[in-house]
Amino acid sequence: MAWTKYQLFLAGLMLVTGSINTLSAKWADNFVAEGCRGSKEHSFQHPFLQAVGMFLGEFSCLAAFYLLRCRATGQSDSSVDPQQPFNPLLFLPPALCDMTGTSLMYVGDLLIIMAQIIVAIQMVLEEKFVYKHNVHPLRAVGTEGLFGFVILSLLLVPMYYIPAGSFSGNPRGTLEDALDAFCQVGRQPLIAVALLGNISSIAFFNFAGISVTKELSATTRMVLDSLRTVVIWALSLALGWEAFHALQILGFLILLIGTALYNGLHRPLLGRLSRGRPLAEESEQERLLGGTRTPINDAS
């Protein structure tokens, strides 16, 4: 089935804003600035605080949802209201998965496999709830953002005191040091610009993602999400953030071929080939059976 213009718009929005989100987070990580208490310059390594900012961006979608609902009051437009009873706590499990998966991916590559499993659970739960309760994408993203923002903000307090040793990226060696992050932002304002780009882009990215889940499926959403890796890789090479490896080309070719096969882009080509073969066979059959009739043919 061909995609509608709205579905193509959502796919493009998801690709662009998702790429901006990852690149802005990488940009923030590359900054070096002094922290609190006269500490030496060090890189901005605050994964859990960045995750809080991500949930703040998602939470803003809930404000946008209620603004749209107030605007639709008194009109016949009911697209911003669920058609079935909806309990916001349904989105607590996906929010917890989002919080855990995103934080783990921010921490390091060693935990990516675990993070992907958790994200897969999140995608399945979101698809189930948005289909079953017909939840507006803005409300779904905003509700997840609310839960994630509140829970992770509270967890920043004990994280400030939990020692993490070499696993930590801040001078105090704790799991997270939010105060050190704010001091670094104060001394290097460009970090705030990067964080603002991360917060704003995640709102549009997750809105587009949930909309794709509702319009198509969670599988399609993840296939599209994998495509932004190509954009991020190309821009990272151009900015000098990544080193080029020839084997990556093969990996991206496999990724693109798999995406094309999943979306059925090979079907028109196969259709042309299948239409071409019957024509040749039919002409050969007509040549053999449609020749000049003979008495022997007539006798049959």
From TrEMBL:
GO cellular component term of the entry, any: membrane
Keyword annotations from UniProtKB, A to Z: Membrane, Signal, Transmembrane, Transmembrane helix
Keyword Transmembrane helix recorded: yes
Protein name: Solute carrier family 35 member F6
TM regions (residue ranges): 48-68, 104-125, 145-162, 190-210, 230-262
Signal sequence, renumbered to the chain: 1-18
Annotated spans, Disordered: 281-300
UniProt source species: Papio anubis (Olive baboon)
Keyword Chloroplast: no
